[in-house]
Amino acid sequence: MNNMLTLALSKGRIFDETMPLLKAAGIEVLEDPEKSRKLILPTNHANVRVVLVRASDVPTYVQYGGADLGVTGLDTLIEHGTDGLYQPLDLQIAKCRMSVAVRSDFDYAAMVKQGARLKVATKYTTIARDFFATKGVHVDLVKLYGSMELAPLTGLADAIVDLVSTGNTLKANHLVEVERIMDISSRLVVNQAALKMKQADIRRIIDAFSAALAK
Ligand code: PRT
Ligand code: MG
């Protein structure tokens, strides 16, 4: 088991968009996570396996060595912190942006100019706190775990900080994007001890991924 290489992925867009990169590295996952209930998926390499974890658990698995490497959104990585994680590559997948959104009838610019205290609901409290601190805007943060769009509609908050891709979810809930905080994509993260112990195998994957990205 000691030469086993374990890659942590989350189901959905990260799994789907990592597959072509793995293929470029000669690695093929032998089971479809949408059809199987297995959490450990074998590959065509006896010493490479994929473990399926919640997106927000990927950095934890890699940090503590439950997986040697993983793929995680920059949003998740910032919120978790980068201790013990080597980040060799921006994989340019699962792209979106982190934005501030408000109800279309809320005058965000005026509130910010007046130095008002904004109530902001988000799952991304670290990113939100840093962003508004840099702007010098006073905020009360309300931590949520999902459906952020509902917060301004129910009076729970004035604004949300959330990921936006097409913008369709905001539009469907009569919210408008008023600031773009940062562009988001997914990163390859590697356990720092594994990087030393399994250097050749991990290097091979990093090199194959970066060659595929350069195309
Ligand atoms: O869904 P679950 O609770 O299991 O976990 P998760 O939401 O953390 O995982 P997942 O797989 O949904 O997201 C994994 C990563 O994909 C995130 O950490 C981001 O880095 C990235 N990503 C890229 C996105 C999106 N695009 C995205 N659109 N993550 C979430 N969304 C959400 C967005 O917040 C909005 O509510 O999808 C909804 C639809 O977006 P629109 O703008 O296209 O309507
Ligand atoms: Mg999701």
Oligomer: single chain
Q: What would you call the shape?
A: elongated
Q: Name the ligand types.
A: phosphoribosyl ATP, magnesium ion
The Cα radius of gyration reads 20 Å
Question: Roughly what percent helix?
Answer: 25-40%
Order of helices and strands: EHEEHEHEEHEHEHEHEEHH
Q: Helix tally?
A: 9
CATH class of the largest domain: Alpha Beta
CATH fold annotation of the largest domain:
D-Maltodextrin-Binding Protein, domain 2
CATH architectural label of the largest domain: 3-Layer(aba) Sandwich
Order of strands, widest sheet:
2-3-1-4-11-5
Report the strand count: 11
| C-alpha termini separation | 34 Å
Pairing-aware structural class of the strands and helices? Answer: alpha/beta
Average pLDDT number: 97
Approximate strand percentage = 25-35%
Major sheet details: 6 strands, mixed
In terms of per-residue confidence, which ranges show pLDDT below 50 for 5 or more consecutive residues?
none
Write the layout of secondary structure elements.
Elements: E1 5-9, H1 13-24, E2 40-42, E3 48-52, H2 58-63, E4 69-73, H3 74-80, E5 85-90, E6 96-103, H4 108-113, E7 118-122, H5 125-135, E8 139-143, H6 150-154, E9 159-164, H7 168-172, E10 175-184, E11 186-191, H8 192-197, H9 199-214
Parallel strand pairs: 1-3, 1-4, 7-8, 7-9
Antiparallel strand pairs: 2-3, 4-11, 5-11, 6-9, 6-10
Phosphoribosyl ATP binds next to helix 1, helix 3, strand 9 and helix 7.
Could you explain how this protein is built, in words?
The chain has 215 residues and is an alpha/beta fold. The protein has two domains: 5-94 and 185-214, Periplasmic binding protein-like II (D-Maltodextrin-Binding Protein, domain 2, 3-Layer(aba) Sandwich), CATH 3.40.190; 96-183, D-Maltodextrin-Binding Protein, domain 2 (3-Layer(aba) Sandwich). 34% of the residues lie in helices and 30% in strands. The strands form two sheets. A six-stranded mixed β-sheet has the order 2-3-1-4-11-5. The protein has a five-stranded mixed β-sheet with strand order 8-7-9-6-10. Helix 5 (125-135) links the parallel strand 7 and strand 8 (139-143). The two termini are 34 Å apart. It binds phosphoribosyl ATP and magnesium ion. Residues 10, 12-14, 54-56, 73, 75-76, 94, 96, 162-169, 184, 186 line the site of phosphoribosyl ATP. Phosphoribosyl ATP is lined by residues 10, 12-14, 54-56, 73, 75-76, 94, 96, 162-169, 184, 186.
